[in-house]
């Protein structure tokens, strides 16, 4: 028996989430008294995973896998599960993992729990805690099938070093054909994405118009943060839809979320509840965001934000 | 084209989330149930196909009789008929199996669902249906065009989007973008009157094996009050974020 982690990479380099799922997978393997196998695709720095507890890396190297295909990946995972006699499959919560997970679950007839936030509280029965009700609650979910699939919510466990002496094995699974063709991929270039960012700076209708986003972008750039917005802002076309966070938009699970001129409606908070530290800047002391935030400034964004940028620049210079 | 739209019946977004029976059951007391917001995008796109390209639209949901008002609402929006599979929807895998069974017996060309439901946020039913039937599947779908047998789909990826093509049959897990929010339909009086006469078929479940179950619920621990910093003292905020919260 073993635990299998699927480690995602982009252009051959592991995503940060891969270190988190590997750290988590190692602990689950320890709980089950078994070993951790990590499945990688087209990566060369596989040894980095030993640091987080990967005893064995199964590396698939194939040009045909340069473009992600969920069905193909699900079939590869199935073959890895059979080869390594896997009892738990662990994925991250990036777009590709969430795409492949249900296909994997069906392939290996496994119960699937997404949005997992902690180690299993018990392994027999197998119970994991997961986010539900759009981050307003958790449920403890028992998976009763022989093999289990879980996807770990971003930033919910953390990255922990647990150096082992690992080995890397090349793995050549049979590739199934898919009649779903990828025609093009459009990537927003150069900017930190909301999904990857440790810090997110977000603006709401309180900023009055798109012409005022310069200071939001500048603040984000000082903090190496991604920019985001509330729903009306993207509905009004001030910002692209890809920046809309909340219940009907993107979820944010950053370490720091700074909300500027955002009221904190329940649908907005649903998307950002799992951010660790929340800061609000709002003129209205009664804005509901103050109930959800850790730190707050009651004040006008047009006065506070430029000051904050200036002071942060100094802070960064002193702490570089 | 025959379209099936999977509808999840969920507590309205503003509902207070509480649990009863020693935190083992969701407290539906006073909760207003609605069509899952992500499914509304799927339903509206289905109506678009019906009106612009010609299609029949069936809506389907797994649940007991209490979900019928939600199905009637989908009929009032314009679906032609509805199916209810008579079993509580507690496990995503079981729901997918029930839905796949219906699809298998009555070939649909296009199956539209939302990318997750806002109660359990499982994000698994559409993908599992596709897996069970070996249909093409696209998750987090933000646009969908169909010409004859060919579908062109865009899906959201981290920091961008990918355009894909395939032939029908196809299962889609949709979200905003599939249609714009301003285009979402609300039932009008005529629709509501007509919905009463449209067929709502009840079928019995085919399986009772489950893969997952909720053993208990928890609410997040109450957070401490927000620390207020004076607007003239942003240094203090930086200090707190650096030394106390350790996030910068
Ligand atoms: C089904 C449904 C789903 C929804 N999903 C989402 C979602 O996913 N995401 C989302 O964000 N919303 C969502 N909403 C909308 C949500 O209810 C709110 O309408 C929205 O979040 C409000 O955005 P806002 O805070 O930017 O704007 P407003 O409500 O207009 O608030 C603006 C805030 O800015 C403050 N302000 C004004 N001037 C200044 C200034 N100079 N300096 C500082 N502060 C200032 C005001 O005090 C106010 O608090 C949804 C609603 C529904 C019904």
Summarize the structure.
The complex is a heterodimer of chains A (320) and B (248). Chain A contains 8 helices and 17 strands. Chain A has helices at residues 16-31, 70-84, 95-107, 214-223, 231-235, 266-272, 289-292, 301-319, and strands at residues 2-6, 9-10, 13-14, 35-41, 56-60, 86-91, 111-116, 126-132, 137-143, 148-152, 167-170, 181-187, 199-203, 226-229, 256-260, 277-282, 295-298.
The whole-number mean of residue pLDDT values of chain B reads 96
Amount of beta strand of chain A: 25-35%
Helix content range of chain A? 25-40%
Based on DSSP secondary structure assignment, what is the total number of beta strands of chain A? 17
Calculate the mean pLDDT score of chain A and round it: 95
| Number of E strands of chain B | 15
Radius of gyration of chain B: 21 Å
Rg for CA atoms of chain A: 21 Å
Number of helices of chain A: 8
What's the N-to-C terminus distance of chain A? 47 Å
What does this structure look like?
The complex is a heterodimer of chains A (320) and B (248). Chain A is 28% helix and 27% strand. Chain A has 320 residues and is of the alpha/beta class. In chain A, the strands form four sheets. Chain A has a seven-stranded parallel β-sheet. Chain A has a five-stranded parallel β-sheet with strand order 14-13-15-16-17. Chain A has a two-stranded antiparallel ribbon with strand order 2-3. In chain A, helix 2 (70-84) packs across helix 3 (95-107) and helix 4 (214-223) packs parallel to helix 8 (301-319). The longest helix of chain A has 19 residues, at 301-319. Chain A is elongated. Chain A starts with a strand and ends with a helix. Chain B has 248 residues and is of the alpha/beta class. In chain B, the strands form three sheets. Chain B has a nine-stranded mixed β-sheet, sandwiched between helices. A two-stranded antiparallel ribbon of chain B has the order 2-5. A two-stranded antiparallel ribbon of chain B has the order 3-4. Chain B is globular. The relative contact order of chain B is 0.18. The interface between A and B is large, with 89 and 78 residues. The site of flavin-adenine dinucleotide (FAD) has 26 residues of chain A, from helix 5, helix 6, strand 16 and helix 8.
């Amino acid at each position: 028996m073993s635990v299998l982690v699927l480690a995602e990479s982009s252009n051959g380099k592991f995503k940060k989430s891969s270190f988190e799922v590997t750290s988590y997978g190692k602990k689950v393997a320890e709980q089950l008294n078994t070993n951790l196998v990590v499945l990688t695709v087209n990566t060369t720095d596989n040894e980095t995973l030993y640091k987080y507890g990967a005893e064995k890396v199964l590396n698939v190297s194939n040009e045909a896998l340069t473009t992600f295909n969920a069905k193909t990946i699900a079939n590869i995972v199935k073959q890895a599960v059979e080869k390594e006699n896997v009892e738990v499959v662990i994925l991250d919560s990036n777009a590709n993992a969430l795409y492949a997970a249900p296909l994997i679950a069906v392939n290996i007839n496994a119960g699937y729990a997404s949005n997992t936030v902690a180690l299993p509280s018990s392994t027999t029965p197998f119970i994991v805690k997961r986010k539900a009700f759009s981050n307003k609650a958790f449920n403890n979910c028992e998976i009763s099938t022989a093999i289990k699939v879980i996807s770990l919510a971003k930033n919910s466990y953390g990255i922990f070093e647990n150096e082992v002496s690992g080995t890397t094995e090349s793995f050549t699974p049979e590739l199934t054909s898919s009649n779903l063709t990828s025609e093009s991929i459009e990537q927003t270039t150069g900017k930190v994405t909301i999904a990857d960012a440790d810090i997110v700076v977000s603006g709401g209708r309180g900023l009055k118009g798109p012409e005022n986003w310069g200071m939001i972008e500048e603040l984000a750039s000082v903090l190496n943060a991604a920019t985001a917005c509330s729903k009306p802002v993207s509905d009004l076309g001030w910002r692209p839809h890809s920046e809309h966070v909340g219940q009907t938009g993107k979820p944010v699970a950053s370490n720091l979320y700074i909300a500027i001129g955002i009221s904190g409606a329940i649908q907005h908070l649903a998307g950002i509840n799992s951010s660790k530290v929340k800061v609000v800047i709002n003129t209205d002391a009664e804005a509901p965001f103050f109930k959800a935030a850790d730190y707050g400034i009651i004040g006008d964004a047009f006065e506070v934000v430029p000051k904050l940028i200036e002071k942060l620049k100094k802070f960064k210079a002193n702490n570089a | 084209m025959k379209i099936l739209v999977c509808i999840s019946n969920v507590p309205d977004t503003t509902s207070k989330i509480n649990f009863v029976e020693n935190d083992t059951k969701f407290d539906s007391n006073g909760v207003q149930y609605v069509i899952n917001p992500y499914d509304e995008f799927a339903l509206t796109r289905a109506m678009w196909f019906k009106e612009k390209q010609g299609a029949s639209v069936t809506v389907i949901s797994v649940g007991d009789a209490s979900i019928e008002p939600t199905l009637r609402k989908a009929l009032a929006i314009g679906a032609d008929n509805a199916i209810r599979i008579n079993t509580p929807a507690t496990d995503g895998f079981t729901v997918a199996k029930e839905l796949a069974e219906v699809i298998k017996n009555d070939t649909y060309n296009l199956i539209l669902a939302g990318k997750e439901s806002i109660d359990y946020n499982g994000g698994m039913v559409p993908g599992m249906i596709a897996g069970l039937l070996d249909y093409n599947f696209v998750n987090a779908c933000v646009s969908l065009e169909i010409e004859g047998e060919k579908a062109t789909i865009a899906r959201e990826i981290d920091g961008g989007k990918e355009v894909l093509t395939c032939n029908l049959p196809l299962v889609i897990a949709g979200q905003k973008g599939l249609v714009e929010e301003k285009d979402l339909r609300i039932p009008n009086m005529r629709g509501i009157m007509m919905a009463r006469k449209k067929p709502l078929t009840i079928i019995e479940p085919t399986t009772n094996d489950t893969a997952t179950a909720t053993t208990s619920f928890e609410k997040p621990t109450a957070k401490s009050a927000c620390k207020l910093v004076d607007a003239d003292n942003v240094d203090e905020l930086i200090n707190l974020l650096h030394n106390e919260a350790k996030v910068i």
